[in-house]
Amino acid sequence: MGENWYSNKELFEKIDALYKEISDLRTDLETTRTLIRDYNNLRGKVEETATRVNTLMWAVPVLIAGLGLFLTFLNFVMGG
């Protein structure tokens, strides 16, 4: 039969190479976890900023209209 048997040295080299690959994968996984965590934090900040912008988009026109009414009222009271 054509069975392949490896020597102890060859087995050690294969196991050592596999260990290095697993170690590299762990490092890559940790980097990926860090990137995902940073992305999620950034996404939360973007959503918070979007909420603030949406609030300002309706609050500013209301404030401008209110200020216009107030100035019109002052003009009416002071002017005549």
Number of strands: 0
Rough outline? rod-shaped
Helix and strand run: H
Q: Mean of the pLDDT scores?
A: 91
Q: Nearest-angstrom radius of gyration?
A: 34 Å
Question: Structural class of the secondary elements?
Answer: mainly alpha
Helix content: over 70%
- End-to-end separation: 114 Å
Explain this structure to me?
With 80 residues, this protein is mainly α. The protein is built from one helix and no strands. The termini are far apart. The relative contact order is 0.04. The mean pLDDT is 91.
Q: What are the defining features of this structure?
A:
mainly alpha; rod-shaped
Question: Brief description of this entry?
Answer:
With 80 residues, the chain is mainly α. It has one helix spanning 8-79.
Task: Indicate the topology.
Blueprint: H1 8-79
